[in-house]
Amino acid sequence: xxxxxxxxxxxxxxxxxxxxxxxxxxxxxxxxxxxxxxxxxxxxxxxxxxxxxxxxxxxxxxxxxxxxxxxxxxxxxxxxxxxxxxxxxxxxxxxxxxxxxxxxxxxxxxxxxxxxxxxxxxxxxxxxxxxxxxxxxxxxxxxxxxxxxxxxxxxxxxxxxxxxxxxxxxxxxxxxxxxxxxxxxxxxxxxxxxxxxxxxxxxxxxxxxxxxxxxxxxxxxxxxxxxxxxxxxxxxxxxxxxxxxxxxxxxxxxxxxxxxxxxxxxxxxxxxxxxxxxxxxxxxxxxxxxxxxxxxxxxxxxxxxxxxxxxxxxxxxxxxxxxxxxxxxxxxxxxxxxxxxxxxxxxxxxxxxxxxxxxxxxxxxxxxxxxx
Length: 372
Known about the structure:
About 10% of the residues lie in helices and about 40% in strands.
């Protein structure tokens, strides 16, 4: 019994070395020294799902996915619609259509699934929502409060939570909009508008909470109609930075040339990295960092909740480059093209290698289903 007590005390001590609970959220301590990481250290197994390629479902710039009724729904930001595939990758239907008709849109920037109301909704930058059933039938078109350039959104219970690009430092970026009245009931988040436009998909949903992050902020916030609070903060030790070090305020815009200066500092590495994606599951906190403002120079952080162990890497030792577009507590969905998968055949199951052999170089990407 004595040894069990000692073991528990040691485990508690060492696991708390990387995760520290403070009044303003949990501190996640991670080294940004790249590690050799096997995909099998994070996931139990991976499955390959080649997506059917036809003129009706050719993907141009897929950057998000929904998972509804065992169906993969891929959002393509360059051909804005949801392309739906079954569990084997066979194309089923397309949801949404560009046009000028009453059931069509000029453009949409984001898509979500409302589980309570069993509908899919698209967000137009012009302040409209277009809703459909999961089998693609049009439901309704809604007008949101007037804002400049709606970018992304989530939903929770009776509210939509939207992100819009602020015109001035006094404008609010986050709006809580009642699903019933379609009126804004609360606004939040002000700051330097030049820091607001990069990577606008800034919400993720975990359980019954919506989290919010920004590209140059190591804090992740809990979105609440009452009061926003810090959920957790990344601590990268010697690799931490603040924008003030580079002469850029988080709260106040400084002149018309500041945005160009910001991009220059990102490209030349003066500002070393920024956050482009964050997620959370029961097992991991996840973040994706982009270095040198190069989309091909993105790194992944997986922080294991159980013991505080973290993984930081660009590609796995097997050669796999992750491109996550969806995650839940069971699996993470990543996109991969034939060329990348050829490099890591040794970790694929025999049947997945057979699927790979049947693919052509210009086919749609595969979905890599990585099981936790």
